[in-house]
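User: Predict the structure for this protein chain, please.
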Amino acid sequence: MCVGSNLPEVLLISCYELGHQPFSLASPLRFLRDDGINAAAIDLAVENLNDYEEHIKCTCLVLVSVRMHNALRLGVTVSKRVRALNPQTHICFYGDYAGLNADYLCEEQYADSTISGEFEPAIVELARAVLEDSFKQNRPPSGVRTRQSVAKPVLQRTSFVVPARADLPQFGSYARFRDGQGELHLAGSTETTRGCKYVCRHCPVTPVYQGKFFVVPEDVVIADIRNQVDQGVRHISFSDPDFLNGPSHARRVVASMHAEFPEITFDFTARIPHLLKHKHLLPEMKIAGCAFVISALETLNDDVLDVLEKGHTKSDIIQVLGVMKKAQIPWRPSLLPFTPWATLDDYLELLDFVRDNDLVQNIDPVQFSLRLLIPPGSALLEQHANAEWLDDLDAANFTYKWSHPDVRMEQLWSQINTVVRQSQNEDIDHSKMFSVIEELAYAMIGKIPPFTRIVSQKRPIPAGLTESWFC
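Assistant: Here is the predicted structure, written as structure tokens:
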């Protein structure tokens, strides 16, 4: 640490959090500061690490948030840079993907420690130990994993506090909310629950939380929203894995938010079974400002949905289409079209379903390229560890490699992945990109698409965010 410097002793770094101002920085930052620790945060999604070299050189502890796969890949690069600038600083990776990849991160010395689950209290304990020079690799604080000491995810209920957002980058730096008229608004986000009570086998939340979830008190959620509204935010994304895990809690939060901020719109993510079970809540959600809902459709193949333990079927998907139309809330499904069990027929059926149900503008093109990730510890390994399609763990890329039994599916994924990534830089319209995807898919079976024109839009482009979703 730099003697006499006012620079922070602890530095939190986020690499990517879905185009939002990171909750994963704001929450632990408040915990640390409430404990009297001089801490600061950097969001590399909108800031440059070069501007913080002096901070890194003087800090004792660097905490890298890796709540998703893309963030982890970027986090390794950050770690290398931090090591070069300050070889003595302690580096801790935290978040779901930190726990799943702890062995590799620690063995390769990208991290001195990792934390997963309800990470805030463990972060505070780690910071105390590092700053007091009492940290020991073989006896770290509870919930902190090292090369010498294995720790399970922290799954004890946390006394939540209002996140510290004031010193983070302004909301204008992040993705905007685009309303149904095409107008852009500042967008924020918050969490009403942590974890998930369901155990979809491909989900990274499952091996960490094991079906547990924790409720963030209503007053904390509303205070966080209030602070964001004070900074100009006009739309809130509830970023819970499933907003309807606690439907009564979700209902109370929405009612309180609407009562205090009637002009604020919001979106949330919910499982297809939950949208069917709690469809009676959707009209009041609409009245309270719900602008769109995200659900993991994944595929129309019931056998694949069963393998993934999604809890829904193709029939349920069709029912939800009707439910959302009746509620007049745009539905934005997410997809997982490339898995070892999917077929070319599945892919073509999915494209036809999207076109026939006027969903082209509801689904970002990147969704049509998404491929199953199998991280270390994935629940899928419990049943498929010896599958012929499964290859070795590619630890450096944080996933098990796998090859589709049908080489055409591998070729199709490669082609679609390439054109979709290119489209991100060229800002190609969804309809044009969808037509390109259709042509590639039909060409793989030696046919031309039965449709010879770009998809027409039957209504205004549905509300959404200006940044595509990536895992």
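The mean pLDDT is 95.
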